[in-house]
Every structure is written in structure tokens, then in C-alpha cells.
Fold this sequence. Notes:
Elements: H1 2-29, E1 41-48, E2 59-67, E3 77-81, H2 96-104, E4 107-111, H3 135-152, E5 159-164, H4 166-177, E6 184-188, E7 197-198, H5 200-213, H6 215-233, H7 237-243, H8 255-287, H9 295-307, H10 317-325, H11 332-335, H12 338-349, E8 352-353, H13 368-379, H14 387-399, E9 409-414, E10 431-436, H15 454-471
Parallel strand pairs: 3-4, 3-5, 5-6, 6-9, 7-8, 9-10
Antiparallel strand pairs: 1-2, 2-4
Helix pairs in contact: 2-15, 3-4, 5-6, 5-8, 6-9, 8-9, 10-13, 12-13, 12-14
The chain binds 2-acetamido-2-deoxy-beta-D-glucopyranose.
2-acetamido-2-deoxy-beta-D-glucopyranose binds at residues 251, 253-254.
Amino acid sequence: MKLLLVLGILSALSVVTQCKSIQSELDRLYPPLEGNPSSHEVKTFLTRVDHFRPQDTRVTRFTYTQKADHFRQGGPIFYYVNDAGIFTTIWLDTGLMHDIAMEEGALLVTSDHRYFRNNTPTASASFEDLAHLTAEQTMADIATLISILRSENPYSSRVVIWGSGYGATIAVMTRQKYPHLIDGVWSSSGIFAPGVYVSDTYAYLEDVIKDIGGDECADRVRGAFDEMENMIYGGRGEELGEIMNHCTPVNVTSDLSVASFVKNQIDFFTQYLNIYHYHGLLQICNEIGDANTPPLNALADWIIRTFLGIECFNFGYYDRVDLARNTEWNQPGTISGLRQYYYLKCTQFGNWEVTSPFSDLFPHFVRDTFHYYMCNDVLGENYDAALLYDSVETLRLIYGDLNPRVSNVVYTNGEMDSWFPRGLQESYPGGEIINIPFYAKSADLRSISEFDGANLRSAKERIQQLVSQWSQY
Ligand SMILES: *[C@@H]1O[C@H](CO)[C@@H](O)[C@H](O)[C@H]1NC(C)=O
């Protein structure tokens, strides 16, 4: 086994050298983002533990980061809503909003979602202590911080907020609730109309691979997953684990272990497209296209070359549960935010991705029950999965589903993003939809570049125009 691993790493290395020129081409189109933390001021603010029970006066101190390099007195405030579990300050240093901030003299600010990283309002992450981890509490934190920023900068009455994915969803909902504090919102690949279990994202990814990657590429992907399925049904978990460089054999007698394993293989596609978009898909198709290599081996080679940072992958269901079940802060599952991420999705947002029995590329192993058990195993016996249906229904009811009626919003959607079917599709008075073909998630966050396709370029110019408009008195 050891020898196999060493050989695997060696052969991976030689292929990496071969592929350097392709990688450098992708890096030229999408250069790695560079931050400048030395210009950041990390500050704190007080916020309520529970915003909605007037008799509960407990407060907690949260951190936020601001960058005032381009700020001119009276300039607007641009606030980036971080996604749950993603902690980035990169958009204070680079990207489209940073560039607009330079022109408008804006103060750039971001903070982490409550219960993530330093923003922990309770003693532990027990199921009971996580009770105040809701979208509504998070939005109230944002409103609190914006009020404080505005009182510290009394001439800066204009506020524009933006986010990506779930962060964009929260940004839009926050203006819906607090229109007196926020003048405009840019939702980049925001997700709307939540469901408990959703099968349209993987189905859409499948269409993207077929329509843009082409029939040959789709055949290779289908071939790889067919073989994976054969090995699972054939009881060949050890062989499968070795091919895919998994740390342990795949436990093919456990539906949950199989689901966890297969889900992560599908998600590699999404991850890659979200970084490299159209060129990324061509790249995948190119790398798995060699007809002399069986499709599953070709897929494994590509995954290992591209994603393997450590010795082997571990997508074990029970390992993940163990990680996310620990309720103490300063444990890997809470530092990474994995436990909190599960709580948010298992109790309020749903949107659990499942495969479809009608799928033509991906085997139907990622089912409702996988997520159902995961939520139960992670959150414990006091959690009631049946309530998630009501929570999701309530979200749709309160925030307007596909008809949010919130004004001064620009929604951008990448047409290669697997969440595209869950984005808003139709403009309405005050809400402008811009769909961007040949890009996946949030390509528009980056600065305008000479390599931008025409649609991406014009989307960015329109965002610039609207944000500047919202930034004026
Ligand atoms: C595989 O899964 C089955 C069913 O959950 C379980 O009983 C068995 O102990 C697992 N095997 C290993 C090696 O973990």
C-alpha cells in the first residue's frame, strides 16, 4: 500500500510537469488573487446574542475588518457579506468592488457570519447553544454593524452591500428587512427559492457538461461514473478506493459511505468550474479525453493531479460526522465551521443536493436519506429533521420566493454555475437580472480584465454603473 502511494505521487508529479503550461494558461486567465492584510484594520463591535427577545440583553463582541485606504470623508460604505464557512477578506484588496471603491472613495468592510471563527456568542456549539444561528440573527448583526459604521462616519450615509452564493442571498434579504440602512445590493450568484432536497443542481451540471463539454466529453464522464457504479455494486470497494486515492477502501455495503464518496467526486467538477469556468471545462475534457486510458482511471488521474494536497482523500461518512459532532470551539469541526454549516442547512436553509434517478451521467447514490442521516448524526437527538420542511417553507413565504420585490438590486448569474437554476431568472422593477454565459459562479467578483468575455465585461460595467449610482447622494 505504501509503495503504491509513493508510485502514485511520483507519477502524479511527472504529469504535473507536463501540464504546467496548461495550468499557467489558466492562471493567466484567472490569476491567483492576492490580498494585502497589512492595510486591514481588524476591529470589534458589540451585538446582541439574541436580537429578537427584548428581555434578553446579553451582548457579545464580534470582529470585522475594514480597509480605509481609498476612503474619502463622505464616501460610501461597501460591505461584503461573507458566506457561512468562507472567511475571506480578499475582496477588500482586489476585484470589481475594490476598484469601484477607489473611484468612489469608499470604505471597504467585511465580517464573518455569526458563530463562525471569532464571532462565537455562546460558550459552546451544542445544539442548544446554536439556537441563535439563524439568517435573521445574522442579518440583524449586519444591520447593527452598518449602524455603527454610519455613526462613526456621519457623512457616509450611502451603503452598498454585496456577496456571493449564500452570502448574496443574505445580502438581498438584509436590504429587504433594513432598506433604511442599505441603498443597494449586488447579488453575485445568489440562491433563491430554497428547497429541502434539490436535484436540479446536479442535473444542471450534467447539462453543462453535455452542452458545453460536448458528447465525447460527456461519454467519458458517464463511462467513469458507470465504472464507479459497477465497482460499488460488484463489491470492489478496495480497488475503487485505490484508484481514486482514497485513504481507506470504500465501504460499499454502507449507503451512507457510498453517498459521501460519490458526492465528493461529483463536487470536484463544480469546484473546478467555479475557478476556471469555460476554460476549466475544456481543460477537464482534455485531461480525461485520452481514449487509451479507461475513463475512471483518467478521471482519477485528473482529480489527483488537481486536488490532492495531502497524502490521500478522506470522504468517509463517519469521519465527517465525528468532525462535525464535536461541540467545543477550537476543534477542527468548529474552527472550519463545518458543524455550524450543517446546523444552518439542517435547521433553516435546506438546499441539500441530491442526484436524480433519471440522471444520465451521475449514479443515483446521493439521496435524501444521506442528508437526513447526516443532519441527525451531526446534531444529535434533540434535532428534528421534519421541522426543516416548515423552516424552508417559512423562508419562501417571508422573503417572497421568486418574487422578492426588493429594489436596487442587481443579480448576476453564471450560466455554467450548477446553482444557476436556483438563481432569480426574471427582472422586475428595481431588480435587474444579468445572466452571464460561459462562466460559472461569481466570475464577476474579479476586476475587469482584458480576458473577460464580452458578456462578462458588460455585466461588470453595468454593476459598476449601478453601484456608483447607489453611492451618490
Ligand atoms: C461498512 O458498513 C457496514 C454498514 O454500515 C458496517 O456494518 C461495517 O462495519 C462497515 N465496515 C467497515 C470496514 O467499516
